């Protein structure tokens, strides 16, 4: 008797659990019942900041947003590949990318829907696609982070470290994120051969490679390395925690005579690397109108100011009243004016990524 | 690093860890068998704590230290993994069938072989003796320990040490072709297959109920002290230090997330999802394991059924990658963005653990005690002249009460704990949640893994406490209810 009860419950309990789970899933399924206006957003921007922005949008418009985030270390590329994999049956309505070239890649693969809305109108030419497939907003910059207790934040110090002690310099693996964009810029300006030599030489001489820009910030802030290459938002996390760090922008030049990227600082033709967030609507979305509203919202002046005032201090790219910006960001706006135009670098990115895959995965 | 190199590196680390862990396992298991019942429960608790403690928190606690130098990171990974696999070894060893050949028998065989070294028969007999002796006893424990160490994912990722798991995550993010990915997965599968085959072989054997151990050592106070020192060290490094790390910013973190309604509701929502999925997978895996271990049919039928355990032993990362690829095939694609692949992977991954739990409960279950409790529950007091009807009723009620309380302690409580443990493992599995959770149903674990890259320790402390504290509170609550019901 007891055994038959056990056998019965061995079947009934999992069935009951499966039914509860199915019910839960159906209740939050986009487009089910009253949730016909739910937007699925893939978001590569830091969740800490993006969640509040999307929540504010939902509160203002009544459009529910289901966001899918990825991890800090591998985020943008992972989501881009997911969108490509799902092209036959897209579940994403809108992609909020934290860099630009991935969005250009999706555009080239015809996975985006053009939209020239109010946000597109307000952005400068270099931060939007001519046909409206995507629009950029709120950028960050590639910078050198230096531990101020151990080294001075100057170009000369970085030159010395790169040439004599690269083991005191940290960098994220360039397979993903903004470090990939950085390498793409180098590939474009220096050419593949020179970048390969530079990269292999640094690795051979002990450059510290870690899994993300936040780890670069940590390793420099705790003094394990004297300097590193990271993004402005990561440096601000360390500065807010009162860690002994300073930063200055990475500048790159296409002068082949220069051996190190930092040597380019004195050259008038130097470029900084300013990497905007981008937003694009996925082709085949069933919620086009809602996606357009969110695209307009994200690249609006309001969100740009909110992100500039957030802990990540993103740089507004559209016309903004300067007085609305914190002092930290005003300095970044100055640096961003020398930013290289990233829109034309897709082929460089593809070639660079193909090479990096062979370097790290084969 | 190439996949082949990463695999060999992980394998070398696994072998080294197992070599260090094995004497510890043997010693601890013997020591635990010798101590009194009260101490034994305490020792088991102390032993299991580092294994059950969320490895995401352990990795995060030591992440900053590991960043100091790659060698230190490797050392930390080695030590923390050691603390995690020793409990696996001790528990398996404790539940393993006893050796059929004693050391004296092996020695006799050895002497016989020495007398005629050219005799093939003597060599064969010696090998058989070794197989039925130490190998039979050691293989299950060593096999499971190696599998746990080889499949490590979160710890290696957070400490940034080389591991094949990290290679697959990078390859997946880079959009490596599905066929190429499956082809490459042969490396870790082949490396694990002898262990998996051995573990399966062991689980399909019938276990003798009386697992009388014949390898007792004379007790030694130094040996006992070393064991206690190890248990305390593992508990401090594997649990207390991460808890201390978490508590440092806990109050400010709680204040912070309390003020951020969006984050708090997001986390609670994701906790509910993780709990629902893990409960569904946990109870299903338990039910399946109950069925698998209860089959009383032909040997070949039982063996083939237990082949279902094979995929689960390959680890949740490989399983998730393969399932993700399979559900993108055209005829399964409609189910791709549903919880089905996620739950399925968790069930398959939990199944071997559920079988192990079933075997462990059967092995440790006091069947005589349970039978007496059953008899007690069915018994009726004798009517005689000295007792009236009222006192008979009181006596029956008291007997039933004792019987059900005894039954709960002997039968239901271990089962509840085992199911709870399975759900807890499902709740903490990052690979499947990370790779297979559908849109709108993310697990809170992925959120925490994400935050761990930012160094936002105060918010993380609070969120991690909520996330990891929830199953403990839930388990305590369920046990409390069950205990109350059984005593009413």
Concise overview:
Chain A has 362 residues and is α/β, with parallel strands linked by helices.
Describe this structure in words.
Chain A has 362 residues and is an alpha/beta fold. Chain A has helices at 2-28, 47-61, 75-85, 101-108, 118-122, 155-164, 177-190, 192-204, 213-221, 232-240, 288-298, 301-309, 327-336, 346-361, and strands at residues 39-43, 65-69, 94-97, 112-113, 135-147, 169-172, 208-210, 227-231, 245-249, 251-252, 271-272, 274-282. Chain A has two domains: 10-139 and 276-333, D-Maltodextrin-Binding Protein, domain 2, CATH 3.40.190.10; 140-273 and 347-361, Periplasmic binding protein-like II (D-Maltodextrin-Binding Protein, domain 2, 3-Layer(aba) Sandwich), CATH 3.40.190.10. Chain A is built from 14 helices and twelve strands. In chain A, strand 1 (39-43), helix 2 and strand 2 form a beta-alpha-beta unit. In chain A, helix 7 packs across helix 8 (192-204) and helix 7 packs across helix 14 (346-361). Chain A starts with a helix and ends with a helix. Chain B has 488 residues and is mainly α. Chain B has two domains: 1-206 and 221-248, MetI-like fold, CATH 1.10.3720; 261-380 and 391-488, Orthogonal Bundle (MetI-like fold), CATH 1.10.3720. Chain B has 22 helices and no strands. The chains are: A alpha/beta (362), B mainly alpha (488). Chains A and B meet through helix 1, helix 2, strand 2, helix 3 and helix 9 of A and helix 3, helix 8, helix 13 and helix 21 of B.
Secondary structure layout plus pairing:
The complex is a heterodimer of chains A (362) and B (488).
Chain A lengths: L1 H27 L10 E5 L3 H15 L3 E5 L5 H11 L8 E4 L3 H8 L3 E2 L4 H5 L12 E13 L7 H10 L4 E4 L4 H14 L1 H13 L3 E3 L2 H9 L5 E5 H9 L4 E5 L1 E2 L18 E2 L1 E9 L5 H11 L2 H9 L17 H10 L9 H16 L1
Parallel strand pairs in A: 1-2, 1-3, 6-7, 6-8
Antiparallel strand pairs in A: 3-12, 4-12, 5-8, 5-9, 5-12, 10-11
Helix pairs in contact in A: 7-8, 7-14
Chain B lengths: L2 H32 L2 H16 L2 H14 L1 H26 L7 H13 L4 H31 L3 H6 L4 H10 L4 H7 L1 H19 L16 H28 L1 H10 L1 H34 L4 H7 L3 H5 L2 H11 L13 H25 L2 H12 L10 H40 L1 H7 L7 H8 L5 H31 L1
Helix pairs in contact in B: 1-4, 1-6, 2-4, 2-11, 3-4, 3-11, 4-6, 5-6, 6-10, 11-22, 12-22, 13-17, 13-19, 13-22, 16-17, 16-20, 17-19, 17-20, 18-19, 19-22, 21-22
């Amino acid at each position: 008797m007891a055994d038959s009860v056990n056998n019965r419950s061995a079947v009934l309990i999992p069935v009951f659990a499966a039914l509860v789970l199915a019910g839960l899933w159906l209740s939050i399924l986009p487009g089910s019942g009253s949730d016909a206006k739910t937007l699925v957003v893939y978001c590569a921007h830091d969740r800490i900041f993006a969640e509040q922005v999307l929540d504010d949008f939902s509160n203002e418009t009544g459009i529910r947003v289901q966001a899918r985030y990825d991890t800090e270390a591998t985020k943008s590329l992972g989501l881009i590949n997911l969108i490509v994999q799902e092209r036959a049956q897209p579940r994403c309505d809108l992609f909020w990318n934290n860099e630009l070239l991935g969005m250009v890649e999706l555009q080239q693969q015809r996975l985006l829907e053009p939209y020239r809305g109010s946000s597109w109108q307000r952005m400068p030419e270099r931060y939007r696609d001519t046909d409206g497939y995507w629009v950029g907003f709120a950028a960050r910059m590639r910078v050198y982070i230096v531990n101020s207790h151990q080294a001075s934040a100057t170009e000369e110090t970085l030159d010395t470290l790169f040439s004599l002690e690269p083991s005191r310099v940290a960098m994220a693996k360039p397979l993903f994120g903004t470090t990939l964009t950085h390498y793409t810029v180098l590939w474009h300006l220096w050419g593949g051969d020179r970048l390969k030599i530079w990269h292999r030489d640094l690795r051979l001489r002990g450059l510290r490679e870690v899994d993300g820009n936040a780890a670069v910030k940590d390793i420099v802030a705790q003094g394990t390395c004297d300097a590193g290459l990271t993004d402005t938002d990561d440096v601000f996390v360390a500065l807010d925690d009162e860690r002994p760090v300073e930063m200055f922008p990475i500048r790159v030049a296409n002068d082949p005579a220069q051996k190190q990227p930092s040597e380019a600082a004195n050259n008038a033709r130097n470029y900084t690397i300013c990497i905007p967030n981008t937003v694009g609507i996925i082709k085949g979305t069933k919620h086009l109108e809602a996606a357009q509203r969110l695209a307009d919202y994200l690249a609006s002046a309001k969100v740009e100011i909110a992100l500039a005032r957030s802990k990540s201090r993103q740089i507004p790219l559209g016309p903004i009243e300067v007085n609305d910006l914190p002092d930290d960001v005003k300095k970044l706006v100055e640096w961003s004016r020398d930013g290289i135009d990233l829109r034309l670098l897709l082929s460089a990115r593809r070639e660079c990524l193909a090479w990096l895959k062979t370097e790290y995965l084969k | 690093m190439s996949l082949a190199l990463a695999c060999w590196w992980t394998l070398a680390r696994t072998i080294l860890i197992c070599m260090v862990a094995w004497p510890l396992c043997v010693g601890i298991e013997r020591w635990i068998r010798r101590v009194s019942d009260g101490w034994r429960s305490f020792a088991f608790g102390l032993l299991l704590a580092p294994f059950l403690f969320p490895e995401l928190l352990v990795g995060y606690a030591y992440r900053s230290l590991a960043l100091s130098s790659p060698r230190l990171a490797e050392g930390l990974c080695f030590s923390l993994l050691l603390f995690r696999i020793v409990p696996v070894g001790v528990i398996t060893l404790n539940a393993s069938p006893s050796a059929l050949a004693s050391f004296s028998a092996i020695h006799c065989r050895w002497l016989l072989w020495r007398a005629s070294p050219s005799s093939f028969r003597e060599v064969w007999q010696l090998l058989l003796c070794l197989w039925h002796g130490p190998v039979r006893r050691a293989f299950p424990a060593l096999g499971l320990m190696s599998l746990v160490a080889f499949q490590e994912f979160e710890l290696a990722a957070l400490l940034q040490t080389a591991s094949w798991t990290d290679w697959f995550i990078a390859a997946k993010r880079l959009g490596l072709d599905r066929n190429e990915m499956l082809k490459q997965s042969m490396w870790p599968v082949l490396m694990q297959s002898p262990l998996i085959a051995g573990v399966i072989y062991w689980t399909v054997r019938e276990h003798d109920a009386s697992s009388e151990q014949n390898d007792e050592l004379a007790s030694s106070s130094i040996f006992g002290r070393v064991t206690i020192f190890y248990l305390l060290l593992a508990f401090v490094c594997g649990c207390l230090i991460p808890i201390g790390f978490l508590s440092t910013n806990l109050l400010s973190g709680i204040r912070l997330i309390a003020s951020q309604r969006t984050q708090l509701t997001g986390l609670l929502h994701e906790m509910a999802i993780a709990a629902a999925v893990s409960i569904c997978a946990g109870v299903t895996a338990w039910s399946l394991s109950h069925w698998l271990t209860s089959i009383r049919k032909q040997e070949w039928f039982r063996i083939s059924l237990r082949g279902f355990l094979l995929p689960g032993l390959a680890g949740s990362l490989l399983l998730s990658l393969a399932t993700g690829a399979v559900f993108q095939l055209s005829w399964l694609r409609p189910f791709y963005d549903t919880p089905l692949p996620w739950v399925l992977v968790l069930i398959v991954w939990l199944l071997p653990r559920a079988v192990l739990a079933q075997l462990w409960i059967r092995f440790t279950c006091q069947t005589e005690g349970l039978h007496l409790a059953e008899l007690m529950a069915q018994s009726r007091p004798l009517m005689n002249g000295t007792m009236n009807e009222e006192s008979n009723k009181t006596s029956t009620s008291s007997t039933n009460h004792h019987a059900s309380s005894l039954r709960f302690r002997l039968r239901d409580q271990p089962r509840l704990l085992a199911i709870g443990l399975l759900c807890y493992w499902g709740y903490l599995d990052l690979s499947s949640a990370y790779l297979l959770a559908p849109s709108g149903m993310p697990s809170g674990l992925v959120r925490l893994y994400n935050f761990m890259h930012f160094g936002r320790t105060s918010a993380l402390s609070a969120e991690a406490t909520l996330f990891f504290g929830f199953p403990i509170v839930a388990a305590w609550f369920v046990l409390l209810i069950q205990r109350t019901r059984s005593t009413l």
